[in-house]
């Protein structure tokens, strides 16, 4: 099944304390993408106007403009990267400390029903995975989405018919990614579960290694670890196979737009409805439109990983309300009003 919208909403809700930094980063991203998409428009003017007129003043002015645009784009990109990396590191620190404080406040009964290794994986590995997805992954997704929107707008503005035909393959790519998301989600969830099993077993056995050695159980415990490791390997390999079946197909379909672009552009030029400069601009935008296909096909993969990792962390974030032990035996009432017995 696809990634749960409720899980994703809760995960992105964790970024609320950093909304100013993220918002500033988004504004810088918009400016950076705008500067990145501007150069092919310069090519149109140079090829269609400067070259026929042999006007080197016109051409030189546009070359200087290109240099300025490249410089602005790099400055905005560097500033954005610094802000987002800072927000990502702060998010990781805050979430890890908050999870630890939450777990530290649980009762002894809660820890008796949980696996130590599983909890460790939630506080360490899952938090790192969430940072990659929510901060770095989201930044990549937004950047590619803005590039797509900008390129489609320019395509249609330059030549409406060719613009529409060139973007059709991307609709097919979107449908393929949606289907992939429905297929791969169970594999990711199973892999995270197996990783929790393996982490729990290793943590428990290492903490009790003297007992294992005292009863000469090294071989049996090694066999258990190997069995869980192979189960994890099988689930991860299943996800890899699904991914490597879906992604090449999506890349192939997406790149058919290059064929449409070249063939349709040549036909329109011969028909007098397009210019050589316009076709060169189309080709220049092609790397922004079809080049990020690897990133586009990873969007669904990022969401599935976020749901798999975030689901475990959110379950760790919202365990049963703790009933703290008091010095004297008796009964207590927790803040939600449910009674719980205490051992003396």
TrEMBL record:
<keyword id="KW-1133">Transmembrane helix</keyword>
<dbReference type="InterPro" id="IPR011527">
    <property type="entry name" value="ABC1_TM_dom"/>
</dbReference>
<protein>
    <submittedName>
        <fullName>ABC transporter transmembrane domain-containing protein</fullName>
    </submittedName>
</protein>
<feature type="transmembrane region" description="Helical">
    <location>
        <begin position="259"/>
        <end position="282"/>
    </location>
</feature>
<keyword id="KW-0812">Transmembrane</keyword>
<dbReference type="InterPro" id="IPR039421">
    <property type="entry name" value="Type_1_exporter"/>
</dbReference>
<feature type="domain" description="ABC transmembrane type-1">
    <location>
        <begin position="25"/>
        <end position="305"/>
    </location>
</feature>
<feature type="transmembrane region" description="Helical">
    <location>
        <begin position="21"/>
        <end position="44"/>
    </location>
</feature>
<feature type="transmembrane region" description="Helical">
    <location>
        <begin position="56"/>
        <end position="76"/>
    </location>
</feature>
<feature type="transmembrane region" description="Helical">
    <location>
        <begin position="145"/>
        <end position="178"/>
    </location>
</feature>
<dbReference type="Pfam" id="PF00664">
    <property type="entry name" value="ABC_membrane"/>
</dbReference>
<dbReference type="InterPro" id="IPR036640">
    <property type="entry name" value="ABC1_TM_sf"/>
</dbReference>
<keyword id="KW-0472">Membrane</keyword>
């Amino acid at each position: 099944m696809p990634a749960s919208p409720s899980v994703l909403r809760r995960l992105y809700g964790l970024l609320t304390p950093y909304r100013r930094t993220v918002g500033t980063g988004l504004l810088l991203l918009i400016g950076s993408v705008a500067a990145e998409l501007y150069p092919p428009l310069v090519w149109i003017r140079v090829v269609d106007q400067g070259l026929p007129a042999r006007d080197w003043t016109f051409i030189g002015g546009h070359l200087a403009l290109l240099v300025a645009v490249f410089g602005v784009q790099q400055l905005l990109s560097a500033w954005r990267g610094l802000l987002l990396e800072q927000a990502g590191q702060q998010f990781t620190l805050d979430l890890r400390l908050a999870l630890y404080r939450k777990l530290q406040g649980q009762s002894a009964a809660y820890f008796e029903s949980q696996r130590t290794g599983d909890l460790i994986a939630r506080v360490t590995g899952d938090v790192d995975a969430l940072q990659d997805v929510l901060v770095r992954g989201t930044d990549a997704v937004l950047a590619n989405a803005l590039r797509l929107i900008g390129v489609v707008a320019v395509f249609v503005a330059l030549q409406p018919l060719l613009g529409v035909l060139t973007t059709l393959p991307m609709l097919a790519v979107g449908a393929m990614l949606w289907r992939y998301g429905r297929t791969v989600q169970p594999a990711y969830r199973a892999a995270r579960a197996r990783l929790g099993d393996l982490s729990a077993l290793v943590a428990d056995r290492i903490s009790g290694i003297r007992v294992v050695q005292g009863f000469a159980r090294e071989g049996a415990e090694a066999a258990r670890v190997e069995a869980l490791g192979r189960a994890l390997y099988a689930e991860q390999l299943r996800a890899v196979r699904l991914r490597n079946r879906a992604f090449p197909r999506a890349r192939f379909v997406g790149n058919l737009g290059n064929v449409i672009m070249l063939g349709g552009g040549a036909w329109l030029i011969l028909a007098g409805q397009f210019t050589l400069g316009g076709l060169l601009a189309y080709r220049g935008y092609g790397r922004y439109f079809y080049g990020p296909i690897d990133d586009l096909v990873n969007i669904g993969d990022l969401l599935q990983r976020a749901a798999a990792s975030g689901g475990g962390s959110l379950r760790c974030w919202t365990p049963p309300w703790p009933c703290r032990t008091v010095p004297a035996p008796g009964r207590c009432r927790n803040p939600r009003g449910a009674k719980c017995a205490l051992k003396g």
